[in-house]
Each structure stands twice: as C-alpha cells, then as structure tokens.
Specification:
single chain
Length: 66
C-alpha cells in the first residue's frame, strides 16, 4: 500500500448522520484486514505520506529545580 488511491470527486453520496445502522452493516461486511487497510489509508490522507515513518514530536521539557 505505497500509493494512496485517487479520490473520485464526481461521486456524491448524501446520507443522514443519524443513520448509523447502514454504516455498521457496511463495515461489518468487510473483513478485519479490509478495515485496517481503510484506517491506514485515512491516516495517510490526514498525516501525509512522509509522516508515516516519522517519529512523534517531543513536547515536554525538563527543568532543574534548586
């Protein structure tokens, strides 16, 4: 899974945010491997391809108390 799939902007799906049952049925119909692959694609789309192997940024500092 080196390359992200292209996004087809011609397809529009309108659905109610209250209808969770249909989405549950869709994801339960997928295998666990397909679900993990979908999570990985979403993660790469949000954080970018370069950030996949990078480390977390350090945000804590230590202070010497006297």
């Amino acid at each position: 899974m080196d390359k992200l799939p292209s996004l087809d902007k011609k397809i529009v799906n309108v659905a109610s945010l209250d209808d969770i049952e249909e989405e549950k049925k869709y994801w339960f119909s997928k295998s666990p491997l397909e679900r993990i692959e979908a999570i990985e694609i979403n993660r790469r789309m949000v954080y970018g391809q370069n950030r996949v192997t990078s480390r977390l940024q350090r945000f804590f500092e230590t202070a010497d108390l006297s």
